[in-house]
């Protein structure tokens, strides 16, 4: 193009507004730019060890060593991903509780990718279904559903004290506001952002309502092993699946395998029979093909390698137990240390919460003061990533929190 023609060009990108920063990832950008030497990032949900690093699990290192030695191709995977990976997901998430012929499993780029595929499927095949989300929920849930064009509503989840589960409020909302065919988002364990989970009896009541209202459960299973244990954390999911014939489960191996950057997840659709499953599976594949075409190999191959080997599986379970136990210890240490600050605020309610996150009850103003005065970054809702705390910095953290109460 000559200079004259270029000078007359209409620039269509001029005037595009700057998008607001992500409520969580944007905090990391601010954290990285902060010059405070004692800064602490408790916003993004990643596990950190005592040295402040996000470690690579020993079982993952060994699996990668084997893969490097034996890998023979970098060719495309099929649309639904590695067969060995999908079989291990089926076994880990569902066990023998459901006929494998009723479950369609597609490997996805992380749990986020799984949720987007699920949302696109609901819009394409189940419209005009809405999805009902707990209030609060993970900050990216509503954004994912909105991007897919899936209408969303909320149901009550926390009680008025902002520390306990409001079962009565949840059931009232689902019974009075939903329509048959609507989807309902459920966190299988380690509710994000609150860490507040239903009890086994609560799950039975939820399952009964979901079945009676003819709702489609969309179950987000991102933290298996971080609540009570790998098998124990399936209890709520299993209770729901005992009550209904159809469900969608989105799982992730970011946390329990430490594969954050490898983006390893899956979307699993449970149908009433194998023929229905095959039809739904074909539609899920169409969605994937027109989005990212097929999933990445490496992370899925790591998971499959570990779970196919008895010795590596045992090591993995030990490492998950160690991470969970350390998170529980950090939560306990925070509660006990806060008692020594003289702030007069009892954080014992945190001990009932499970998983990486705790809903602290801090106000947005207090959160802002923590960031600006002390270099401590947490989400505006007051969600704290307990897995990002440090034993060595616990006194400093608690003194900072006490100063803003």
UniProtKB/TrEMBL annotation:
GO BP field: amino acid metabolic process
CDD domains in alphabetical order: AAT_like (cd00609)
Gene3D superfamilies: Aspartate Aminotransferase, domain 1, Type I PLP-dependent aspartate aminotransferase-like (Major domain)
Top-rank taxon: Bacteria
A UniProt-annotated Pfam family: Aminotran_1_2
Entry EC number(s): 2.6.1.1
InterPro entries hit by this protein: Aminotransferase_I/II_large, Asp_trans, PyrdxlP-dep_Trfase, PyrdxlP-dep_Trfase_major, PyrdxlP-dep_Trfase_small
Domain Aminotransferase class I/classII large per the UniProt entry, residue ranges: 38-400
GO molecular function (one): identical protein binding
Keywords: Aminotransferase, Coiled coil, Pyridoxal phosphate, Transferase
Coiled-coil stretches noted in the UniProt entry, renumbered to this chain: 313-340
Claim: Chaperone is one of the keywords in the record: no
Cofactor or coenzyme needed: pyridoxal 5'-phosphate
Record flagged with keyword Coiled coil: yes
Complexes and interactors: Homodimer.
NCBIfam families registered for this protein in UniProt: PRK09257.1 (NF006719)
Family recorded in the similarity comment: Belongs to the class-I pyridoxal-phosphate-dependent aminotransferase family.
Full protein name: Aspartate aminotransferase
Taxonomic lineage: Bacteria, Pseudomonadati, Planctomycetota, Planctomycetia, Pirellulales
Gene transcribed to yield this protein: aspC
